Amino acid sequence: MTTRVLTALALLLIVGYASAQNQPAGWKGKFEQLDNLLPTPNSYRTGSGAPGTSYWQQQADYTIDVEVNDKTQLLTGTETITYHNNSPEALGFLWLQLDQNILADNSITNQTRTGAVRDSVPAGFFSGMAGVKTSDYKGGYTIKYIKDAAGKALPYVVNNTMMRVDLPAPLKSGEKYTFSIAWSYTEYNRQIFGERGGYEYFPDDGNYVYTFAQWFPRMCVFDDYEGWQNKQFLGQGEFALVFGNYRVRITVPADHIVGATGTIQNAREVLTKDQLERYERAKKTFDKPVVIVTQEEATQKEKTHSEKKATWEFAAENVRDFAFASSRKFIWDAQAVKIGDKTPIAMSLYPKEGNPLWGKESTKAIRNALELYSERTFNFPYPVAYSVHAANQGMEYPMICFNYGRPNKDGTYSKQKLEGMVSVVVHEVGHNFFPMIVNSDERQWTWMDEGLNTFLEKETIRTRYPDLFESHGTPKGIVPFMKGEKSQMRPIMANSDDQRPSEFGANGYTKPSAALTLLRETVMGPELFDKAFKEYAQRWAFKHPKPGDFFRSMEDASAVDLDWFWRGWFYSTDNVDLAVDDVKWFRVKSLQVDPEKKTPRTKKGDLSTSQQTNNGTDFSGGPQEFTILNTDPKAYGEFRGNLNDADIRKQVDGKNLYQVRLRNVGGLVSPVVIEWTFKDGSKEIERLPAEIWRTNESEVSKVFVKEKEVVNILLDPNAELADVETANNVFPKRTVESRFDQFKKNN
Predict the structure, then answer these.
(1) Residue 131 sits in a domain of what CATH number?
(2) Same domain for 13 and 93
(3) According to the UniProt entry, which residue ranges have a biased composition of type Polar residues (predicted)?
(4) I need a surface site. Which of 166, 365, 539, 712 has the fewest CB within 10 A?
(5) Cα distance between residue 696 and residue 429, in whole Å
(6) What's phi and psi for 652, nearest 5 deg?
(7) Helical axes 511-518 vs 447-464, angle rounded to 10°
(8) pLDDT of residue 251
(9) CA dist 533 → 37, 51, 92, 410, 634 (Å)
(10) CA 198, CA 210: separation in Å to the nearest integer?
(11) 21 and 104 both lie in a single domain
(12) With contact defined as beta carbons under 8 Å apart, do 618 and 733 qualify?
């Protein structure tokens, strides 16, 4: 439908009319909807971003017995898996992940490792290059057998980090299948290999701290989206895993303390009387941690290595993985946290080398993370959350994580060390929410857990540790990365293993966090964003979301069209670079009206527009004057009434009109935030939505009406847009350097 009605020029100016502009050549459709990029909605995943009425997912339950040899570092285990086929199709084989095979000599990772020789390279950095090995370590699993429930051997084939097990008959929809695996591998020195898990050896006292991760053969995900997710583990892309219930028995030296996914089932058998009393007291203590194993007790155990064994039993329900830590060096503290109607226990394990920092901060950081994340998503549902100290590490698993942050030998530490330690504990504990519960596919989409989690980590530090808050994960903090050469970048939506190491951290962690910060603070506003983000989290808790489910849920729950945002921030390598190209200052001429014709006429001596102009670089030329004529009645078409031209002129009489031409240099469409500084020294912030670029993504012109004279215009005054070039954000242009220096000083 078209409306053939012309309104008065003055009215159009008042509402901020932007002159018609031709669509530029090479239009890329930055506001085009994402429909052609996202999967077609169906009964499994709906167009709203919610799970559909036919949504299903598999389940894998584990019963595991494992033993740690503290002398040889050999890990030996047997596991029984009960696999539930909830899919609508029959399965003739099953796929399992053998992640430890990444350290086998013939792994794809080893064969495709790249590098170059340079002079004077430190020996520690030469490990792994050109096949050079710094130890005689032999990595990878030894599979001893795979048997069905009757003890009959099952055929299997190992393909690098994946293992296919052939079933004697197809596993039909709704059926379950039980089989067992016996295996072993030698745990590795993490200082040499730098992988997740591993051990650290302490030469001063001859002890180990073990962090066991990816330590048992685990089921691959089979889902509606791609069938078996059996993409090889190459090291960078992490894990896609199945929810299930676990019963795990862990045999270690009798003087070890063990922390693991789940709750201890036999505390009376493995703890001393004093430890048990402290442990029970911690479950009811909310104000500060209770020390269950003291530093003095741990230090004493370091001197005497027990030859006896003890078996710790743990149980966990509805988790996607299981990890554990073990050492005689562990100090152990714990306290209860109130989350809704539950009281999970926050617990920390750390050697004396972590003190005093860890005793002061670790369990406190767990509590802060659980509380903030629960507020923004859903109440933490698990009974336990561990933080375990491990040098140079940050890694997450259900209910347990391994974190760095070691003070100096004399116990001192810097503010930077404190900030790093608190942040990594918050971050890794936060992973309980993403992806341990909102169970995205880390092998494919790093940002779906790391980016969302980095955003909430930043929010936790901002609200709970304001003195430690920095620009990490914010629009301001991502600017140096966004300034990089676009042709050498990959977008956030590139596969995890295809990201360059130099950009993996930014694209997986800080750029998506910065994007979400911009989305919350500038595009949507905190109230709408928080409601939509919580909706997504609650829809997909204990399920397997994909990128489209997140994008669609955020729009569905907010009524904000964000396709332009996802397209720019997640699918492209564009950056934000807005520029004030030109500003023209206008005032309406003083007019007299002919009483007979009621037509305005110019006073004698008035300057015409052509006689007075500013020079396009500052306001020194004064305002240009222009005339507002009465509207020709023909312009109203079929309407019987007319607008009051005199009232329109009156509304702008004596006011200042600023026609601002904005240019999108970086290519990433963005909201516009303008700071106006007036002649009397006052300031005003004005915000324009990104849709201002919808008809021209390169350049727009907009008219602003101001009561007072403007002396300075600044884009993005609070560094909230991730604008990579602030020098072109200022008008008048003659004050760019001084105004920019002032901005840097104030921010």
Answers:
(1) 2.60.40
(2) no
(3) 607-618
(4) 166
(5) 44
(6) -110, 0
(7) 60
(8) 98
(9) 22, 15, 39, 44, 51
(10) 6
(11) no
(12) yes
Q: What is the pLDDT of residue 5?
A: 32
Assess if residue 580 is contained within a domain.
Answer: yes
715 with 584, same domain: the answer is: yes
Task: Quote the DSSP letter at residue 328.
Answer: T
Domain C-terminal end among 140, 160, 186: 186
Regarding whether 608 and 734 lie in a shared domain, the answer is: yes
Residue 78 sits in the same domain as residue 19: no
Copy the structure tokens of residue 424.
Answer: 């990594």
Decide: 314 and 238 in contact? Cβ < 8 Å: no
Q: Is 99 exposed, middle or buried (0-12, 13-18, 19+ CB in 10 A)?
A: buried
Same domain, 596 and 738: yes
The enclosing H or E element of 97 equals strand 91-97
Question: What does 388-403 look like in DSSP terms, one character per residue?
Answer: EE-TT-EEEETTEEEE
Q: Are 365 and 341 in contact (CB under 8 A)?
A: no
Residue 258 pairs in a beta bridge with 326
Which residues, given as ranges, of the chain have pLDDT below 70? 1-28, 123-135, 590-616, 734-747
105 and 179 share a domain? yes
Q: What per-residue confidence (pLDDT) applies to 133?
A: 60
pLDDT for 109: 73
Determine the Cα–Cα distance for residues 382 and 432; give it in Å rounded to an integer. Answer: 9
Which class for 207: exposed (0-12), middle (13-18), buried (19 or more C-beta within 10 A)?
A: buried
Strands 600-602 and 578-588: unpaired
Q: Which residues have CB under 8 Å from 656's CB, separation 6+? A: 585, 586, 587, 623, 705, 706, 707, 708, 709, 710
Q: Which amino acid is at 357?
A: L
The secondary structure of 262-308 as a DSSP string is: SEES-HHHHS-HHHHHHHHHHTT--SS-EEEE-HHHHHHHHHS----
Other beta carbons within 10 angstroms of residue 291's beta carbon come to 16
3-state class of 474 per DSSP?
Answer: coil
Instruction: Supply the DSSP string of 404-437, one letter for each residue.
Output: -----TTS---HHHHHHHHHHHHHHHHTTTTTTT
Give Cα separations from 22 to 666, 698, 699 (angstroms).
20, 11, 10
* Domain-embedded: residue 710: yes
Residue 622's identity, in one-letter code, is G
- Quick one: tokens of 269? 């058998």
- One-letter amino acid of 339: I
Would residue 160 be called left, alpha or beta, if left means φ above 0 and alpha means ψ between -120 and 50 degrees?
left
CA 179 to the chain's CA centroid: 37
Same domain, 21 and 103: no
- Do residues 265 and 313 touch, judged by C-beta distance below 8 A? yes
> What's the domain range around 80?
74-116+126-186
**Boundary (domain end) residue, out of 163, 186, 209:** 186
Query: Can you read off the two tokens belonging to residue 712?
Result: 């300075």
Of the chain, the end-to-end C-alpha distance in Å amounts to 50
> How far is it, in rounded angstroms, from Cα 127 to Cα 130?
9
Q: What 3-state DSSP class applies to 604?
A: coil
> Which tokens hold the place of 481?
């990365």
> How many domains are there within the chain?
2
Domain-located, residue 685: yes
Question: Is 530 among the domain residues?
Answer: no
